[in-house]
């Protein structure tokens, strides 16, 4: 220890602990059925800024609690605050508030005011940690609030089958919030799992979003955000990303978004973004891309999807590199002739070419668009001839003598072996 | 009549082709169910083969059988037996032995690897297709006495239903792409028993989600038990009409 100030600091801290233990206890307001405070609302109202309200285990029938000063609201031994479907439970109208370890439940659908279990209004540095939120309309609702942390929460709604979209709220809803961190949350049973609108420079990671009626993750007009290590599973329509630029989506898993109008990831008007190392498994459509340009898609796995990629001809300058395409009904489909996107060094399990010089790159180009997928895109009813022998025959003929499929949509250097993304770094470097 | 059916049945079993057919199907189904991983995948790959091989084998076998047992039929006609009865017994003998082979060859592996309602539909489809194509084969063979010609017609019929028809419909769909074609497609698939069978099975598998709006329309019509019944009813019509007309030709013709 060379730094004397540090020593002094520690000494002072120990002294403060010894002398001030009585005082420190005073700054914590306890709430329990036998304590001075029996309701959270009272305790919050009489607490001074900077104090801690400690809620002990038990069930509290309360709603309309407003936190208008910097407090820490801490739950111990699983306290439950039951809103009894009477209105919002927690409204935070102050900076530097922490809400941790509470269970909040029962909020009715309210079409006029979007009631939420926790709402933050125009404040910053709010931390919402490790809460459980059950049966609510909106779960966590942040508006105009910057630098907030939403971490480790479980937001579970109801069984959404047969529900109407407007009767459900979003689990985590952010509107005009910059620099937010949303991590390790589990959200399910709402309209959208995580909804972001006008949210910039934020980070969404390690979340699990499943069984939501509409989207697992929905974001619009939210530039410069990072999405990593999330899992989106069995949502009504997957994940939608619209009107945004400078996004990084990495190491996410999109799976089992299976249905007539479902897809893994929908990209609309996205540009300058990076989509790396994601897994798309068993989706009706892995990625649906519309008017998206300058996207970099690398090292993704597309496995057993209906369509791995639906690339509309409004997309330009997108690059697909080192991706694995395995077991998809259609690898790539498109609706036009002109193609301004690049496919390089991907692995296609339908590739039948050879590699004479043994450089692990096929010598014959691969055309991922099949004649039949073009036909289906142009004449949707012809999808009823899927698996017909004639269709397979036409596809084979077209593969040998291409004449209808887009000339430029081609992978000139398809890889011969499936890429093991963790082990094949060397190969990727050599090819790069 | 039962006696004649029994005779035809024994005759077919003795010549061992049906036995080979059963073994072929058995091997194929076991192989595909083992390869596919999930039973759904097995059913899907089996579907393609069933729709291609079952009509072909049914139609070729039935035609050759008909010509080979011509002398036997002539002998029977000399007896005081109704011609229609002779014809029907021949038909039932061939169709039942072939569909029996199919049920054994595909049904047993299906029971072992994953019995499902979709599997049942596949089995039913196969049986109906056997009956339909045996009827078509008999129609081809009563039209002409020339064996080569008869087999030629039968093969053409198979070619038409299994291959060309889909091509024609796809061409029509492409040519009229600007019009709403959903109901037209439905009508056109009903005109081909092979397509009908394929769609019944496909709609009950996962892949139906890929079929978009048209698939949804099909599902709304064919998805219910009533719709499935209607589809199989249509296939029954496909068996009865050629059978009735060929029976008529047979009973009127100068042998």
UniProtKB/TrEMBL annotation, chain A:
Q: What span is annotated as the signal peptide, if there is one?
A: 1-26
- InterPro entries in alphabetical order: Beta_helix (IPR039448), Carb-bd_sugar_hydrolysis-dom (IPR006633), NosD_copper_fam (IPR026464), NosD_dom (IPR007742), Para_beta_helix_rpt-2 (IPR022441), PbH1 (IPR006626), Pectin_lyas_fold (IPR012334), Pectin_lyase_fold/virulence (IPR011050)
What pathway does this protein act in? Protein modification; protein ubiquitination
PANTHER family cross-referenced by the UniProt entry: F-BOX ONLY PROTEIN, F-BOX ONLY PROTEIN 10
Give the domain of life.
Answer: Bacteria
Keywords for the protein's UniProt record, in alphabetical order: Repeat, Signal, Ubl conjugation pathway
Q: Name one Pfam family in it.
A: NosD
**Organism annotation:** Pontibacter mucosus
| Record-given protein name | Nitrous oxidase accessory protein
Residue span, Carbohydrate-binding/sugar hydrolysis domain: 55-197
From TrEMBL, chain B:
Going by the UniProt record, its keywords in alphabetical order are:
Membrane, Transmembrane, Transmembrane helix
Q: Which Pfam families match?
A: ABC2_membrane_2 (PF12679)
A Gene Ontology molecular function term of the record: ABC-type transporter activity
The keyword Transmembrane helix appears for this protein: yes
User: Which is one Gene Ontology cellular component term of this protein?
Assistant: plasma membrane
Kindly indicate whether the keyword Transmembrane helix belongs to this entry. yes
User: Could you list the residue ranges that cross the membrane?
Assistant: 12-33, 45-70, 91-114, 120-143, 155-176, 225-245
Q: What is this protein called?
A: Cu-processing system permease protein
């Amino acid at each position: 220890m060379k730094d004397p100030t540090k020593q002094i600091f520690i000494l002072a801290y120990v002294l403060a602990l010894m002398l001030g233990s009585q005082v420190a206890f005073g700054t914590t307001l306890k709430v329990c059925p036998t304590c001075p405070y029996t309701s959270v609302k009272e305790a919050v109202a009489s607490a001074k800024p900077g104090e801690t309200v400690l809620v002990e285990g038990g069930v509290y029938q309360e709603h309309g609690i407003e936190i208008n000063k910097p407090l820490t609201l801490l739950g111990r031994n699983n306290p439950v605050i039951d809103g009894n479907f009477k209105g919002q439970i927690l409204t935070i109208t102050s900076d530097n508030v922490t809400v941790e370890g509470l269970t909040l439940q029962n909020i009715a659908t309210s079409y006029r005011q979007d009631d939420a279990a926790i709402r933050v209004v125009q404040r910053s540095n709010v931390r919402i940690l490790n809460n459980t939120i059950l049966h609510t309309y909106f779960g966590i609702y942040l508006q105009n609030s910057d630098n907030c942390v939403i971490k480790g929460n479980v937001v579970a709604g109801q069984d959404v089958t047969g529900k109407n979209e407007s009767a459900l709220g979003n689990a985590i809803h952010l509107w005009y919030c910059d620099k937010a961190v949303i991590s390790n949350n589990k959200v399910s049973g709402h309209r959208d799992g995580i909804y972001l609108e006008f949210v910039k420079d934020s980070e969404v990671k390690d979340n699990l979003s499943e069984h939501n009626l509409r989207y697992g993750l929905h974001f619009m007009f939210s530039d410069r955000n990072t999405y990593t290590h999330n899992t989106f599973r069995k949502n009504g329509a997957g994940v939608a990303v619209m009107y945004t630029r400078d996004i990084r989506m990495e190491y996410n898993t999109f799976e089992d978004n299976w249905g007539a109008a479902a897809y893994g990831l929908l990209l609309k008007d996205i540009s300058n973004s990076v989509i790396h190392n994601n897994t798309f498994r068993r989706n009706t459509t892995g990625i649906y891309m519309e008017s998206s340009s300058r996207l970099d898609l690398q090292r993704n796995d597309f496995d057993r999807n209906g369509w791995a990629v639906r690339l509309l001809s409004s997309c330009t300058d997108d690059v697909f590199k080192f991706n694995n395409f395995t077991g998809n009904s259609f690898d790539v489909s498109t609706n036009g002739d002109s193609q301004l996107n690049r496919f390089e060094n991907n692995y296609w399990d339908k590739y039948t070419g050879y590699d004479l010089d043994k450089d692990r790159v096929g010598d014959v180009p691969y055309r991922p668009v099949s004649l039949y997928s073009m036909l289906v895109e142009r004449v949707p009813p012809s999808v009823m001839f899927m698996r017909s022998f004639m269709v397979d025959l036409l596809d084979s003929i077209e593969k040998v003598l291409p004449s209808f499929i887009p000339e430029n949509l081609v992978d000139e250097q398809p890889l011969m072996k499936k890429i093991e993304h963790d082990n094949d770094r060397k190969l990727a470097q050599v090819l790069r | 009549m039962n006696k004649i059916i029994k005779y035809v049945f024994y005759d077919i079993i003795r010549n061992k082709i049906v036995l080979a057919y059963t073994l072929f199907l058995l091997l194929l189904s076991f192989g595909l169910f083992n390869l596919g991983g999930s039973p759904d995948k097995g059913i899907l790959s089996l579907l393609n083969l069933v729709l291609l091989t079952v009509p072909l084998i049914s139609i070729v076998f039935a035609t050759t059988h008909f010509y080979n047992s011509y002398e036997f039929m002539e002998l029977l006609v000399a007896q005081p037996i109704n011609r229609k009865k002779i014809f029907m017994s021949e038909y039932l003998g061939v169709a039942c032995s072939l569909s029996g082979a199919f049920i054994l060859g595909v049904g047993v592996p299906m029971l072992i690897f994953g019995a499902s309602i979709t599997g049942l539909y596949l089995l039913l489809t196969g049986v109906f297709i056997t009956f339909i194509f045996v009827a078509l084969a008999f129609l081809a063979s009563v039209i002409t006495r020339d064996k080569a010609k008869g087999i030629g017609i039968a093969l053409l019929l198979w070619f038409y239903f299994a291959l060309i028809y889909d091509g024609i419909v796809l061409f029509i769909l492409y040519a009229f792409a600007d019009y709403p074609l959903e109901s037209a497609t439905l009508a056109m698939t009903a005109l081909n028993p092979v397509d009908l069978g394929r769609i019944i099975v496909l709609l009950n598998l996962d892949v139906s989600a890929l079929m978009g709006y048209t698939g949804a329309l099909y599902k709304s019509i064919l998805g219910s038990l009533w719709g499935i019944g209607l589809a199989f009813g249509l296939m029954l019509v496909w068996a009865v009409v050629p059978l009735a007309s060929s029976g008529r030709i047979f009973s009127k013709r100068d042998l």
